[in-house]
Amino acid sequence: MKSSMLSGKTALVTGSTSGIGLGMARALAEHGANIVFNGFGDARQIEKLYTDVGKEFGVQTAYHNADMSKPAEIEAMMQFATDKFGGVDILVNNAGIQFVANVEDFPVDRWDAVIAINLTSAFHTTRLALPGMKKRNWGRIINLASAHGLVGSAGKSAYVAAKHGLVGLTKVTALENAHSGITCNAICPGWVLTPLVQKQIDDRAGREGISADQARKELLAEKQPSGEFVTPEQLGALAVFLCSPAADQVRGAAWNVDGGWTAQ
Questions:
Q1: Which of 57, 85, 159, 229 is catalytic?
Q2: Is domain 10-190+231-256 classified as CATH 3.40.50.720?
Q3: Structure pTM?
């Protein structure tokens, strides 16, 4: 059932044309927030996506195609949100990419890209969103970190470094705004069946000559005791909670939703 808890608020969700970001955007729209989408994909499909979400939930939607590795484009996107809706009340930093290689083999350009998109982009969106949030004395910053923001995995040095950094940025942002109506928290998902993870499953199936179903089970068994994927809908529901009055004193948390991964 549609709620109006976030009516009149505007949420900007980076990397929201698919996967976790889309789940976040839909959940926030369901509770009345206007949504600024961002991400890559076919222009016509994206237009249909944000138009459909707007109609479904009776909210206003818009889209900006900022490349999250480019500070000037991030600045343009934040200005776009201000021009369109008067500012960003809820910022969800979700954009992310992955690359897997051992440290000594890690291509420098891939390291730079992972850090730029997974970590530095969140610094830029946050610094640009905070002045307006301070003026209104209300804001919610939600950083999509990862179980890899809490623990490591071999071969993922850039991703793990970026996600640990994002958890650190979350804590500092929360502390700097502790006496205000602005909160900042991180959500740390385990395996979610996104296009990024599906590629890892397909790669494993091809590499080991096994079925996609078997590769999926093996991937989960390695890390996630529940043996089940986290869903974008579950993460979206947590984001809604973090935007609610019940979460006014949830500040600087790194909230793991990982089927028991980091409990081990």
A1: 159
A2: yes
A3: 0.95
